[in-house]
Design brief:
Elements lengths: L4 E2 L5 H12 L3 H13 L6 E6 L3 H12 L3 E6 L7 H10 L3 E4 L5 H12 L5 E4 L3 H9 L9 E4 L2 H12 L6 E4 L4 H24 L7 E5 L3 H12 L3 E5 L3 H9 L3 E2 L2 H7 L2 E4 L9 H4 L7 E4 L9 H7 L4 E5 L2 E6 L2 E6 L5 H4 L6 H21 L6 E4 L2 H14 L9 H7 L7
Parallel strand pairs: 1-4, 2-3, 2-5, 3-4, 5-6, 6-7, 7-16, 8-9, 8-11, 9-10, 11-12, 12-15
Antiparallel strand pairs: 13-14, 14-15
The structure holds adenine.
Adenine (ADE) binds next to helix 3.
Length: about 425
């Protein structure tokens, strides 16, 4: 195992406390960890993970180690690392960690490359950087790989583009698209934590404000629903007519971003695309508007345009709030335009990550058991895994459900004519 590269190993005790706190909200992952300890399905397998280095991720890493994996971890974003968690994992939880909050672009790349150098048989990604770097710089490793998993929509977009070009050379399990991931991560996880990040950074009151959500996928829906619940007037901007119609039917105002630019007090981009808020929008915004991004990459708000327009300069007016002076009009950018829910808050609550990371752990096990039989390409999480996780989560919530009677089963599976 190579030496870890973390900010400060002496932070480990605080990290352990944080990991234990999250663990109490992660009963599904805990039950998988107990089984992994008994069965050791990952024995001898090198698993490299490029994920946000949080307490929740630490519990996933503990689960992989319990299953017998040699585990290494780097950050999926330079601003999301919890340094005390990185220290605890590197210190005594047996994981090789390369991550420090605020690391620069060179350190980020060096850290990803340190994981590539381990020659992993399985990769776990949140954004696909690790697997893409392997394809780009060490294709020789792909031969020995069982496969990878992917946690985000953005990562899957990149991997599917690689697949379309005929270059994806191993199976990838699309954890992001499991029902027990997508329904809860995007809507409940980012929906709550993006607002949490904005409120922690600004201490604004949402009631009475106009909040503009750009992008009405599951994340946009979750944010809009919660912002409305907190008393904000919500405006939705979309390019997809189906989603736009859905937003309108949910009772939100729907309009082009250029119009919304003049109306909004708070803007949140969650499209996965680039330059969603650019010069023409920034030029129209009100004095004091707040700009945040909850999409994976920091490209949804054009920082280039913002900087070019800021003739009066920029100052950090609160931690993670950069105020740009556009000749008397002030625009407040949160967390440098990076994922606000992770940079200014703690990401998805542990109870949500419980299901995502249960998917990750079981997908890794699936790759060990069946990876060799899977063709290169993006594959869904098997339905039985999704159902197992839902069942375990329900049990942890002490929720019981009905089962069909034999007559009902028979009725539902027959084609009998009416009457
Ligand atoms: N992605 C979003 N929230 C997260 C969290 N709490 N831990 C790891 N990855 C995340």
């Amino acid at each position: 195992m190579a030496a870890p590269d973390v900010a400060d190993l002496s932070l480990a005790p605080a990290g352990r406390a944080r990991i234990a706190w999250a663990d109490q909200q992660m009963p599904v992952l805990a039950s998988i960890r107990e089984r992994f300890e008994r069965e050791r399905p990952l024995a001898g397998i090198t698993v490299a993970a490029c994920l946000h280095v949080t307490a929740e991720t630490a519990n996933l890493m503990r689960t992989l180690v319990a299953g017998g994996a040699e585990a290494a971890l780097c950050a999926a974003n330079p601003l999301s690392t919890q340094d005390e968690v990185a220290a605890a994992l590197a210190g005594d939880l047996g994981v090789e960690v390369h991550a420090a909050r605020g690391e620069d672009a060179d350190a980020y790349v060096r850290h990803v490359q340190a994981l590539v150098a381990r020659g992993p048989q399985i990769t776990l990604d949140d954004g696909a950087d690790l697997l893409i770097v392997i394809h780009a710089s060490r294709p020789d490793l792909l031969e020995g790989m069982l496969g990878g998993t992917e946690e985000t929509t953005t990562g899957l977009l990149r991997l599917r583009a690689l697949e379309r070009d005929g270059r994806l050379a191993c199976p990838v399990i699309a954890v992001n698209e499991a029902f027990t991931e997508r329904q809860f991560n995007d809507r409940h996880g980012t929906g709550q934590s993006a607002l949490d990040g904005i409120l922690r950074a600004t201490n604004l009151l949402l009631a009475g404000r106009t909040l503009v959500v750009l992008g009405y996928g599951w994340t946009g829906k979750g944010i809009a629903e919660r912002a409305r619940g907190a008393g904000a007037s919500v405006v939705v901007c979309e390019v997809d007519p189906l989603r736009a119609l859905e937003a309108r039917m949910q009772g939100y105002e729907v309009m082009p971003a250029l119009e919304a630019a003049e109306r909004g007090d708070i803007f949140i981009t969650v499209t996965g695309g680039r330059d969603v808020l650019r010069r023409e929008h920034l030029e129209r915004m009100k004095d004091g508007a707040v700009l945040a991004n909850a999409g994976h990459f920091d490209i949804e708000i054009s920082l280039q345009d913002l900087r070019a327009l800021a003739t009066g300069g920029m100052q950090e007016v609160r931690p993670l709030v950069e105020q740009y002076d556009l000749g008397g009009r002030r625009l407040n950018l949160l967390a440098q335009g990076r994922v606000v829910n992770l940079a200014a808050a703690e990401g998805h609550p542990a109870a949500v990550m419980d299901m995502s990371f249960a998917n990750q752990a079981l997908a890794a096990e699936e790759l060990v058991r069946h990876g060799a039989d899977l063709a290169p390409g993006v594959h869904p999480v098997p339905d039985r895994i999704d159902r197992e996780i839902a069942g375990l989560k329900l049990a942890s919530l002490d929720v019981h459900i009905d089962a069909l009677t034999a007559a009902q089963e028979q009725y539902l599976s027959s084609w009998g004519a009416p009457g």
